[in-house]
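Much of what follows relies on a compact textual record of a protein's fold. Each token is a code from a learned vocabulary of local backbone shapes. The record below shows the convention in full.
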Amino acid sequence: MQKQNVVVKFCGDSGDGMQLTGNMFSSLSAILGNEISTLPDYPAEIRAPQGTLGGVSGFQVNLGAGVYTPGDKADVLVAMNAAALKVCTLGSKFNVAGAKYDENECTYKKNAVVIIDTDSFSDKDLEKALYQTRQMEEVFVELGIPESVQIVPVALTQLTKESLKDSGMDNKAILKSRNMFALGVVCWLFNRPIDKAIHFLEGKFAKKPALIAPNVKVLTDGFNYGNNTAININTINVEVADDLEHGTYTSIAGNKATAFGLIAAAEKCGKRLFLGSYPITPATDIMHELAGRKDQNVMVVQAEDEIAGVCTAVGASFAGDLAATTTSGPGLSLKSEAIGLAVMAELPLVVVDVQRGGPSTGLPTKTEQTDLMQAVYGRNGECPAVVIAASSSANCFRFAYEACKIALENMTPVILMTDTYLANGTGLWRIPTMAELPAIKPQGVPEELKGKYNAALRDANSIRYWATPGMEGFEHRNIGLERDSVKGSISTNPENHEKMVKARQAKVDQVANKIPLLEVQGNKQSDTLLVGWGSTEGHLHAAANELGCALAHFNYINPLPKNTAEVLRQYKKVVVCELNNGQFAAYLRSKISGVDFKQYNEIMGQPFAVERIIEAVKNL
């Protein structure tokens, strides 16, 4: 079969290697020229007992041409055990007694191909997954799976054991290789050249060479099993994207792209990159990536807590480094006072907030857009900071780079918003050359101020001059207390305080002169405009195409693009779609009059489903 794009979902126990399998298949697809968008989905708890409903981990990938989202539902599901099949079939109702297949709840399509491991449907497996039946043949009836779903039974466990019987590996290690057999079958199903997958495996296990041969054998045997046995399904050819810009492409996760963007910015402006952070899900991978990049003049300090992390970054900024800190919503709360210090001291600082479900510890491995108001307003006093948002896993690179550029050129903290969906998901990324990236010109200090310099002096654009320790003749104090607008010393004068508040605000406001204007995508002649920000762009783009309406998507939030009001006032119906209770809609209402904003909101810990956006907009 020839298809423009196909959605594949791998699902099994947390220990079944679903994330590795999904990432390998995604990367292989990217190598072959497919656009990809992925959605890893796994529990936050310490690993649940094997085979139970609470321990199911999944990885979904949409591949082909014209890919904007990971897909609403899977065309192909690989269910490694009975619990995975139940969770994928019943959706959020997997633990409701007597629940049956519901097309709206099911995570795969009604004509999907479902590959199951028949060896993981024993009496014990069915009992742990809370089935009523103890017969595998009756499982599909109990779940109410329609006959249009093509069930493909494969004895993955037994076949893997047979493949590795002479490997010398123990039974536990052999069972961990089942995912490679499943990957081999899927590579056959999608006509993927096995040599490319083998090459990827060799790179993956380069530091553990003893694992290469057995994994390659299982993968190859899985491919040959599909190729040589009478599996009664068609193989699938997926279209290759033919409109991609010429260049070198790779599959990249949002956190890695963010780390690369920070490194590239430091290289471009000739400064050392300093990261002061504390581990927190789902942002920790950025710190992991940067910690291994000492060869790129990166210094990473893992602090004892969130507050210490940002304080080390503020200190590094004072010393002249490109300083950054990474966190998620709970950590952003803790960092708020130190971010306020950077605002008052007018020091460049990049704060990466990888949003997750909240409040408190909330849903650590699930996605939301619920930190927006905290990023814009969540500090004491009049404390303006620039806020921008990435909108795909791949463009996390671009906006991390942009955050550094804005911070260094405008002497202000910049908060970069990503989220769990972007951070852990992957997309196809064209690797830029350094020459392609825009110049970064950090704020300096004129030589004529030597001997006269203080921390209050600023240029015609209200941007404070930046002298750093060690510059002879530019010795100065920088403080968290209000300063005199002329002398830089402590001041409690009322008029001076108001003047300084307005100066700091003006510095952020004028960033609007340096960012792109808001562009409308889709059918610009429609009377309906979808509005979103951050990670929802792909889903809203797909929905707008289906609805035949217009889309305005925001990456720059504070300040907004200069033409925002002009654009929004052109449309009769403006529908703001976001993964929260309406924070961006409320923000727009506070900034722009004369627009009747409608809302569509979800807060389920998952990205939007395109079909739900379409239904909601039609109802509005």
Remarks:
- The CA atoms of residues 393 and 426 lie 6 Å apart.
